Structures are given as C-alpha cells and as structure tokens.
Amino acid sequence: MRLKSLEIKGFKSFADKTVVNFDEGITGIIGPNGCGKSNIIDSIRWVIGEQKISALRSENLEALVFNGSKTRTASGLAEVSLTFENTRNLLPTEFSTVTVTRRFFKNGESEYRLNDVQCRLKDIHNLFMDTGVSNDSYAIIELGMVDDIIKDKDNSRRRMLEQAAGITIYKTRKKEAKNKLDLTEQDLNRIEDLLFEINNQLKMLESQAKKAEKYFEIKKDYKEIAVELAKAALEGFNITYKQLNEQQDDEVNKRTVLEAEIATEEAAIEQEKVGFIEKERALQGMQQEFNLFQQDVRSKENEKNLASQKLHFLKDKEAGLKDFLGKAEGQLKGIQDSIEFSHLQVGEEESRLAELLEKLETIKEETGDKRIQFEQKRAAVDGSRSKYQQVQRNQFDAEKKVAVADTSIQNLQRAHAQLTDEKENRSAQLQQLEKELAEKEELLENKRNDLRELQEHHERTKEQILETQSQLEVLRNQLAEENRRLDAKRNEHDLLKSLIDSMEGYPESVKFLHKNPNWNNNAPILSDIIYVNEAYRTAVENVLEPYLSYYVVNNLKEGLQAVQLLDENKKGKANFFILDRIGENETITKQPEFTIRALDVIEVDDEYRELAEYLLGNVYIAENDEAINTSTNAVILEKHGKYVKGKYALSGGSVGLFEGKKIGRAKNLEKIHDEIVLQDAVVNALKAEIKQKHNEVIGFNEQLKENLIRQTENEINQLTNQVFAAKNKAENLQAAQQNATQRIEDLESRLQDDQDGIATTREALAELSNELQAILEATKAAEQEFQSAEQEFAFANAKYNETNLLVTRQQSKLVAIKQELVFKQNQLTELGNQVESNTQQLSNAAQLIEEGQQALIDSEALLVQMLRRKEEEQQKLNEADQAYYNLRNALQAKESELRHKVKSREIVEHLLSEIKDRLNELKLQLAGMKERLHVEFKIALDDILDQPRTSTTPLEELQATSDRMRKRLENIGEVNPTAIEAFQEMRKRYEFILEQKNDLVNAKESLLQTIQEVEATANQQFLDTFNKVRENFQRVFKALFTEEDTADMILDNPDNLAETGIDIVAKPKGKRPSSINQLSGGEKTLTATALLFSIYLIKPAPFCILDEVDAPLDDANVGKFTQMIKKFSENSQFIIVTHNKMTMGTVDVIYGVTMQEPGVSKLVPVDFRSLN
Prior knowledge:
Layout: E1 2-9, E2 18-21, E3 26-30, H1 37-47, E4 77-85, E5 97-105, E6 110-114, E7 117-119, H2 121-128, E8 140-142, H3 143-151, H4 156-165, H5 168-502, H6 508-515, H7 526-529, E9 530-532, H8 537-544, E10 551-553, H9 556-568, E11 576-578, E12 595-597, E13 602-604, H10 609-616, E14 619-622, H11 627-630, E15 635-638, E16 643-645, E17 650-652, H12 665-703, H13 706-937, H14 941-944, H15 955-972, H16 979-1040, E18 1046-1051, E19 1062-1067, E20 1074-1075, H17 1081-1098, E21 1103-1107, H18 1115-1128, E22 1133-1137, H19 1141-1144, E23 1149-1157, E24 1160-1167
Parallel strand pairs: 3-22, 3-23, 8-21, 10-11, 14-15, 21-22
Antiparallel strand pairs: 1-2, 1-4, 4-5, 5-6, 6-7, 9-13, 12-14, 15-16, 16-17, 18-19, 19-20, 23-24
Helix pairs in contact: 3-17, 4-16, 5-12, 5-13, 5-15, 5-16, 16-17, 17-18
C-alpha cells in the first residue's frame, strides 16, 4: 500500500483545488514560515479521522474552512481526499485503489466517503486498523511528537509499539468485551432489583389475598348487624322528634315576653340619660372655671416669691461692695510702697552687671591664647601617630604575606603528598576494576546465550499456543452459533408450549371442554393430531381452517356427553369428528398434473389416518401456476397458501404473518423438543472440546517460561548496567590519574615560586620594625607636651565659663526685677478702676432695695384676697360633684337590672338553638344512616322502613356490636379483591426472570474468560515485538551515533505487560549511562529517531510524514538522519517538511509552498529525478 495523491479544496489556506501526487521514494515540502506547509500535514491528519481540534492547530471545525482574503470570498466547505494504492492488499478491501474523503460544510454538517460512498468514522478507523496508519501512529511525526516520545507523554512509546505489534484489535476486542461485561453486570443488577421487587410484591399479594378473604367474611356479618341497627334506630326517631318540637314552642313564648319588658325599660333609661348628660356638662364648666382661678393664685404666689428672692440678693450685694471698698484702700497704699522699692533695686543690679561684663572680657582674651597653644601641640601629636600607624600597617601587611606564604607552602606540600597517595590507590583500583569487568562481560555473554535458547523455546511454544488459540476461536464461534440456535429453539418451544397450554386461538367452548373432567377431556383437537411439513403448513392450514378446532372423539356417546356439558354450563358450541363413523370415503379424483398429494406432506398416527384421508384425500398442492388449469374436481392449494381452488370456487389473497402457526402444534412441540435435546448435545460437546483446548493453552502457557525469560532479561539489563558503570568508572579513574599527574607538576612549580617570592618580603619586614621603634619614641615626647598644654587650656576655659555663668545669672535677675515692677504698676491702675466702679454699684443697689420692699408688701395683700375666694369656689364645686355621682349610681342600678333580663333572653335563645341543633342532628343521623346503607351495602332505607326487626336486642348493644365489626374492618385496612389472580401471574413472571438471570450469569463467565484470553495473547505479542524492537534499537542507535555508543530499552514494570511503560537508557561515548531526558537536544532527537526506525524494521508503515523533525540537528547528525531515511525509503514512502538544505538535497520530488496572494497557499512541484 502506498499514497497516490492528496486533493485539497477549501481547507485552511488552500482556497483552490490543489493536488499533491506522491511517487515512490522521498517527497519534500518546503517554503517560508507561515506559507501553509503544515496545513498539508493537517489535511492528511484530518482526512484519516483526527477528532481533536487542538491537534489540527485550530479553535473549531468552522476555522478549518477557508475564511476568505482581501481578494477572495470565503469557501462554503472544506474537502480533502486521500488516495491509496492497495497493492499488497494491506487494506481489508477488494479495491486496488481506495480514496478516503472528508467534507465539512460551514452550516455544521459533515460526512465521510469511501470510494465516493458515504460511510461512518468507525468504518475509516476499521479500514486503517493495524496498518500503521492512524492519527496517533508513527505514520505522521511532528517535532512536537518527537518531544512527546522523548518525554513519553501520554505513554506515547508504548502506543507506537502497540501499533507495530498489531494488538490494537485485541485492545478493541477487550474493550468491547468489557463494555458487554459492564452491560451484563448492569442487566444482572437490574434483574436482581427486579427479582427483589417482585419477591416483595409476591409476599404482599399473598398477604392481601388472605386479608381479602377475612374482610369479606366480616363484612357479611357487619351488613346484617347494620340493617338491624337501622331498624332499631328508626323506632326511637319519631318519639324524640315530637318531644323536641313541644319544648321548642314553650321556649319561643318565654322569649317573646322577655323582649317586651326589655324594650320598655330601655326607653325609660334612655330618657334619664338625657338629663344626666346636661348635669354632667354643667359640672365640667364649673370645674374648668375653678382650675383657671387656681392657676391665677399660683401665678401670684410665684411673683411674691420672686420679689422676695430679688430683695435678698440686692442686700447681699450691698454688703459685699461695702466690704471690698474697705479692703481696697489698704491694698493701694501697699502697692505704691512696693513700686518705689523696685526702682531702687533695678539701679543696684545694673551696676553689678557692668562690673561682671568687664571681668568676663579680660578672661576671654587669656583663654584664646591658651587654645592656640593647645591646637598646635595636638597637631604635632596627630602627625606622629599617623606616621606610626602607617608604618605599623606596612609591617602588618608584610607579616601577613609571610604567614600566607608559609601556609600556602605547607598546603602545597600536603596536597602533593595526598595526590601521590590517591594516584597509587587509583592504580590499584584500575587493576581490580579491569579484572571485575572481564568477569562480568563473560557472565553477560553466558546470560545472553541462555536468553537466546529460552526465546527459541518460547517461539516454538508460542506457535503451538497460537495454533491452539486459532482452533479455540473457531470452536467458540461454532459454540456461539450453536447456542444461538439452541436459544432460538428453546424460545420457539416455550412460545409454542404457552400457546398450547393457553389454547390460544380456540373458542371458549373448546377451552371449557379441555379443562372439564366430566367427559373424555383427553380427546385431541384436529390441529394437534396432524403435523405438516413446514413448507406446506400455511397451505394445509388454510384448507383445514374450519375444522382445526374440532374435537376428535371415539364415538357418538362421547360427543353427546360434551354437548350436554356445554348446554348445562351455557358455554357455547363445539364440533366433533366421530372416529367410528368414518370409513366410507368419497371417491378419490385423479391427481392433477404439476401437483403433489396433501396426504404426502403430513404426518398422522395410524388411528387417525382414515380421518386425514377423509379430509385431505381429494386435496392437492400445486407445484406451479399451471396446476390450477389442469384441476377438475380436486381441491388445489398454492403451496404458500396464496389461494385455494375448489370445484366451483376460488379463494385467496395475501398471506397473514401468523398463518400456519395453529396446525400441528402438539406434534411440532414434540419435534422441537427432540431437536433441542440434539442441539443441547452438540453444544455440550463443543463446550467439552473448548475446555480441552483451553487446558492445552494453559499447559502451553506454563511451558512458555515467561518469568524465567523476564528474570534473565532483568539479569542481562542489570549486568549491562553494571558493565556500563564499570567501564565508565574505569574511564573516570584514568581521567583522574591524568589530572592528578598534571596537578602534582603544577603544585611543585607553585611551591618553588612561593619560596622564592617570600625572601624579599622577610627583609622588608625587618626594616619596618626598626623604623616603627624610632617613631614610637618621638610620639611619646610630643604627647607629654600636648597633655601639659591641654591642662592649661582646660583651667582657663573653666574660669571663663564660671564668669560667663555669673553674668548670665545677673542679667536674668535684672530682667525679673523689671518685669515685677511693670506688674505692680498695672495692678495699681486696675485696683483704682475697680474702686470707682463698685462705689457706683453700691449707690444703685440701695435704690433697688427700697423699691423691692414696697412691691413685696403690695403682692402679699393681693394674694390673701385670692386665697379666700378659692376656698369659696371649691366648696360649691364639691356639692355639685356629689349630686352628679348620686344620679349616676341610680342610673347604673337600672341598667344592671336590664342586663339581667337580656341575659335571660340569651339563655332562652341558646336553649332554642340547642333544640334546633338536636333536630338537625336527628335529620343528619337519618340521612347518614340512609347514605351509609346505600354506600356500604347498596340497600335503600325506604326498603326496610316497613320491615319488622328480626331480634329484640337493644339499640345500644346493636350499636356496640356494629362499632366493633366496623373497627375490625378498619383495622384490616385496604383490601385488593384481585390479589389472588395477580399473585399467580406475578409468580410466573418471577420464574421467567429467574431463568434470564441464569443466562446472564453464564454470559458473564464467558466474557471474563474471553477477556483473560485476549489479554494473554496481546501481552505475548507485545513482549515479542518489544524484544525485536529492542534489538533493532541497539543496532540503529549505533548506526546514528558511533559503534562505541550504546543504548537500551527497559520495561518499567515487566510484571504488568498490559500497562508497563518503556524507558530508554543511552550511553554516548565518554558519558555515563543516563535516561533519554538527560541527553542534549540533538541527542534526544537522534535517539527518538532511532526508536522510530527500529519500529519500522518490525512493521514498516506504508508511508511516513516528518514535519520539521530535523530542526534540532546539526549538519553532521542531519547527514546520518538523511542516510537512514534513504535506506528506509526502499520500503516506505517519506514525505518530509523541512527548512534544512542538506535534507532538501536527499528528496526525489519537492513541492514548494508559497503565498503569492496574501492568505492563499499555492504549490510549485519540482522532480529532481528528471534533472539527473
């Protein structure tokens, strides 16, 4: 199989119809970034069934359709067609050329077509299954996919090996089997729930049936008691009703008298209330006038109190002013004396301050001279100290250099000795390591020979397993087919038996006679004694239709006995054939041409043979349409039942779906039962043979020694890793030896240089020590002179500070005296102003006191008059109030008597209401009794009014008995009268579902066995493919790298072949063995490429598309890469998308993708083979 062409139209940037033709060899696709190269790869991925939009570098399906440009309108659909030449019949189809087409319309519709015939996505997947062509196989490899293989994203390495191993179909079968198993388990769970529910319903229905029997027994007795109770109750209704009517008339008369008295008294009370209201209003007016006068009195009292308080305040103020004026005179004299003393004190203090300032100036000049001398001495000392510190630092630096040099020399000597010892130790280790490496390589070779022998034995055993499994698969298919036939026969048998048991299609009279033992109910029906060949059953049934429900009896007596039973039980009519009266047959006509006798296609017992000849002796079945024209007096049947032709009549038409299903049911049931027995034997034989083959497979699997092979492989892997580690360790030791020799030489050179350089430093150190001593002596002399000058300056400075402090204190004292003088002068002025103001206030206060005393006297006289008038007004008000309350009490007494009569009237009305309620209650009881008798027992009350009682039991006792029986009925609860019949039907359903459950359990066991066998086969194929790919990988890796480079593939979990991952360990020359993730970018790409080529060696895909896979490689590795592709292109087509010029040079045909028009991709093909 190879790619022939690719046709793109309206897909992404390919607006126009674009055709890419693929020849054998290598096809290259080149072009600048963004021109649409990868859109070609996306179109191939899309047409072979890719469903993930992200894998197509798009946001949604609509974005796959050409969206238009500045000069072009958008396309309405995207269409891609991929054509294959099925040269080696790799595709499971008879066509030599296969074209797969996928279309997507912008309205959301899409379709797949196979050779221009519409199909499903599943058909496309099935077409490419296990061919190496799919959206996740190694047929399309992008740079990102190479990275996924390197990182083993989503277990991509295993998926590729599974494609090469061809176990996808096994995984699909396993998945389908698991889905069926899940569905089976769901069905089992549903059936379990259904059985549980039905079982509960069965128990409930059984309980309901027993409850219904008990209910009907109690209800019969309850009906008799209820009727007798109704009769007894009717006797007392008339007496009670009459008494209640008489009592109602008496109470109505009492109510009339009370209402007249109440009306008279209410009128009199209303008249008295009018006079009472007038007196109440007059009393309120008097009360208001008294309250106003009382407020005036209180106002006068407040005015008197206020005047008294004001007078008292003025007298207090007058006394205070007199006291202040007396004291102010003495204060004025004291302040004037104090001001004169302060003037004298200010003059004295100013003279003293002038003397202190003059003294301070003299001391200040002396202190300045001392400071100049002090500064000069301090500068001399600082210079000596600075010079001393500089020389001391130089001495310290020299000492440090000497110490560092000594330490460095000692360290170099120790390092030299240590490196010499390590070199000797490594030499010993190298000798030991070379010895161990030779032993491990010998052991590794032995293990590989053992593994080779085990694998050869494994291959032979596997062939035997595959052969047996193939036989087992054939047997299972046969078993499934035979089981289907057996199930069909059993279903047919059950259906037919159900029809026979229920006598479906027969009149009620026939069913009645079949179940009645009072006659010979074992007599057969005509349809049961005749068996007709399947091909002619409809035709014969059509002619015998009127007689099929006839009973076949031995004599006339049996027939008459059955007729008598039907007549007695009013069950309709039935027909009978009397065997002892059949003997004289009608004349048999000559058999017409092109017919066969109806008697020749039936089977009937000898005792009924004459009856069959009587019915079918003159009946023939036409072999073709010519027979109808040659018949005379015979009855001709069309063999499918289309028509029946008699001597003078013809009937026929369409044949019903259920015609031919009635005749020969009993005989057919026996034959089906015999067929079921034979079919069951065939099924059991196949099961036994399958079990035997399965045991053989198990035996072969035990001989596979897979665990021993895996153990040996693990040991080889461990030994290989140990050999790698030993070689790497040896290389590291040799490199370390070389480094140690070089370091020893370097140390010796550095040691000599350090010893030469330190001698000069030691001489400089001695000179610096002598210089430092001389500077130290000069510094001490300068410091003594500095200390003497410092003491003199400190004494002079202290004297100056003391004098300055006295001046400052004197200045502060003088300022304080002056401030005190100003304060006293201000105080004298303020005190004079206060004396003048208080003298004026004292004069005003005396005048106000005289006016207030006269006003207080007038106010007291007016208040005495108002208090006397208040007492008089209060006496009048009390008398009017007492008369008002006497009148109100008399009115309340009359109203109380009236309320008593109203209450008596209400009692009478309440009694009348009770009488009326009792009358209504009697009427309701009578209506309730009538309704209950009608509802519960369908008895009309009028029918029992004139009936006498059947007992003398008192009403109370009858009522108690009735209540007890009704309570028993209520305690029984709801009753289902159809429970018994429903119970029988439910039990039959339970048994049927139980049979279905057993079938599902058997199906589950079969599915589990299938899953186990599929897993075993898939795991074996995966392991075989892995071992082959592993050998190829080791060889191809050396071809892409060097012969000295090694690599290996390791199963992460060999004990779980169904899910184990795959790790890749590589050891390029001069490096330690490491996982593929630890290699450089180019090494990773070459290693992943080696893995891909190793898989090609197992099962080459018909074509391979590489999308810029060579991008991370340098020129040297690109050369190896292209050489390998040339080698593989002999068996597979390669389509390469690249930017590398070396890769372009290896292709046979190249397509350039350009965008001459913005947004629209174009192809430019060049065939390099025509240029050679």
